Amino acid sequence: MTTRKKEVLDWVNTSGGGIPSRAVAHKEVLDWVNTSGGGIPSRAVAHIGAQDWKLDAGTVRRWWRKRDEIWAAQPHQMRLAGGGRKKALGELVDLLLESIVLRRLKKEKVTREWIAIQALQIYAKVDNSMIRSFQASSHWVSNFMKRNDLSLRRRTNLTTLSDDQLVDRAVSYMRFLSDKKRSFNFANTVLMDETAVYFEDAREQTVEVRGSRHAVVKSTGFASMRVTAVLAVTATGVKLPPASDLEA
């Protein structure tokens, strides 16, 4: 057993609590490449196989490219600083969220489709070659909205008047109606409503003898066609003749 390997095992049994650290294992491989391997990472494959370690040449080469960071790492580190999975958009998520907020401040509509298109445009400004790896799928948009507390809302109608202005206008309108009511001619005041009259009874049900296998109903094929009928009555209770849009 080499002196270096003995030092590694001693550290694992004492300070490491019996758990071999990734940083320590990386350093042992890199030390072998730097000394016995002559600085050629691929030569370490045979040595690693003899130690019953499951590593390929590509992994060793990747470690060798980052040898300065690995040698500088502490023995207890399980990951290099800045390692781990990166977010799909990184800091550009903040730019996307900012553009959404600014658009809503202008009272402009923001849809899920707009978020996906905007995300692709922002991502393309960083690296056009990586745009194919990010699709801004519907699932990604849903997760983005969930992470940033965004939700789909129906448009609401809000009055721009203050409470005092709203009360003043309501009182003024009621006063106007009260004054006009004294001169109303109720015989000429007509209340009307429009309703649809279908060419056929559109209901699909009919009464039939119990146990019948079929319930056939005649149809002209114009069940969905209709005309608009206007029904009216005066304020005095006199019904007026109905009218339809065909007469117009």
TrEMBL record:
Pfam families hit by this protein? HTH_Tnp_Tc5 (PF03221)
GO MF, one annotated term: DNA binding
Q: Which UniProt keywords apply?
A: DNA-binding
- Matches recorded under InterPro entries: HTH_CenpB_DNA-bd_dom (IPR006600)
What positions does the domain HTH CENPB-type occupy?
A: 80-154
The name this protein goes by in its record: HTH CENPB-type domain-containing protein
